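PROTEIN DESIGN WORKSHEET
SECTION A - STRUCTURE
LENGTH: 213
TOKENS:
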């Protein structure tokens, strides 16, 4: 029987990964190009731990600046008076959209590295509990902040489905589809994502209302 994944350990792994990115970011801002030993010391973890999360220093240094460039949910919604979930989701996606297209080259490198590592670890991993996070989940906090004022308008099931569906629209993967697969430019992609996000919010609201009747 597969082992149950401990949420506490999973959260700790995400925190450790975040700490390494933050440490690398601080060192880069000092005008330095640190090695893994320096980053590990700054993050107060062992060198071996650092390598578990980032197999090469190059992968870490590519992703570290991106971590600081991601829109902060509090800043995105600072002074925002609207509680309309569609409007807020659209605002959050617009902020991440701009960041993604502005950092497209670095994000492609990061995505390629995570896909390569995922393929390697899928063949070698004995269990899901042994794995460390391959990516930082930067879109979920934005989605959660966007939906927070209207959370009680959704059933639990509808909220979970909506959050997962919106995650497909937010982020670098949608840029790859629009640019590489469909050949759609940034401006047109933004309009399509806005339309799709609004449609998903509307569908979740209708499902929630119908369930509660």
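SECTION B - SEQUENCE
RESIDUE ASSIGNMENT:
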């Amino acid at each position: 029987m597969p082992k149950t994944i401990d949420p506490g350990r999973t959260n700790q792994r995400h925190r450790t990964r975040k700490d390494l990115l933050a440490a690398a970011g601080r060192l880069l801002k000092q005008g330095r190009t640190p090695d893994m030993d320096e980053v590990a010391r700054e993050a107060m973890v062992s060198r071996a731990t650092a390598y578990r999360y980032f197999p090469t220093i190059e992968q870490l240094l590519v992703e570290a600046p991106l971590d600081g460039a991601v829109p902060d949910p509090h800043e995105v919604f600072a002074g925002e008076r609207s509680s309309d979930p569609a409007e807020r989701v659209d605002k959050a996606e617009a902020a991440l959209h701009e960041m993604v297209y502005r950092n497209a080259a670095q994000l492609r490198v990061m995505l390629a590295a995570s896909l390569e590592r995922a393929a390697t670890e899928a063949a070698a991993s004995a269990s899901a509990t042994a794995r460390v996070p391959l990516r930082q989940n930067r879109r979920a906090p934005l989605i959660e902040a966007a939906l927070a004022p209207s959370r009680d308008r959704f059933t639990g099931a509808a909220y979970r489905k909506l959050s997962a569906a919106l995650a497909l629209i937010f982020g670098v993967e949608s840029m790859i589809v629009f640019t590489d697969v469909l050949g759609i430019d940034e401006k047109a992609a933004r309009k399509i994502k806005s339309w799709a996000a609004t449609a998903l919010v509307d569908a979740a609201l209708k499902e929630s209302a119908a369930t509660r009747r």
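SECTION C - NOTES
Residues 70-212 form one domain.
The two ends are 40 Å apart (CA to CA).
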